[in-house]
Design brief:
single chain, about 170 residues, alpha+beta, Metal Binding Protein, Guanine Nucleotide Exchange Factor, Chain A, 9 strands, binds zinc ion
Length: about 170
């Protein structure tokens, strides 16, 4: 086995249990997991949102109007509308992406991402698997976490407005 094969074997060992974890997280929310093909999502979503949510693209920094959103409310997954974050956990990280220090309970799953060679922790909607962003350990108290989210992957619902029905 050469070095490359060893790396891929190691990667497989790491990713298989994480995949199992994602399904378990969806079950924890009590909401049925929504399984749709990429082709179906591509038909339903604007191209820019599809590329972030289902191709793991990253929007340019400072491009999202949600960076400046300061009202009370809920941020829901732009694909399946599962509530992911409460505005009370949003803060200005200065990075150019909407940032939160904590997701709603059971709302996101995580996996290791090696796209930039060094590992980062990717997180996604626990219901539909739509990619949201990456989580880092340089956030504020009380969690110390920074959930760095693509604005294109979220929709904001102001307090007092009805949450959209979950997409089925
Ligand atoms: Zn979703």
């Amino acid at each position: 086995m050469n070095r490359r094969q060893t790396f891929h074997t190691l990667l497989g060992t790491l990713l298989i249990p994480l995949g199992v974890h994602r399904v378990a997280a969806a079950a924890d929310t009590g909401k049925p997991e929504l399984v749709m093909s990429k082709a179906e999502w591509a038909r339903l979503l604007p191209k820019s949102a599809f590329e972030v949510l289902f191709e793991e693209a990253t929007e340019p920094p400072n491009s999202s109007p949600l960076n400046h959103e300061k009202r009370d409310g809920t941020y829901v997954c732009a694909a399946c509308f599962l509530p992911l974050f409460d505005s009370a956990t949003k803060y200005d990280s200065g990075t150019g992406w909407p940032s939160f220090w904590q997701p709603l309970a059971g709302a996101v799953g995580t996996k290791l991402d090696f796209r930039l060679i060094w590992p980062r922790t990717e997180y996604h909607c626990s219901r539909c698997g739509g990619h949201q962003g990456h989580v880092f350990d340089d956030g504020p108290k009380p969690t110390g976490k920074r959930y760095c989210n693509n604005g294109l992957a979220l929709q904001f619902v102001a307090q007092g407005e009805p949450l959209p029905s979950l997409r089925t």
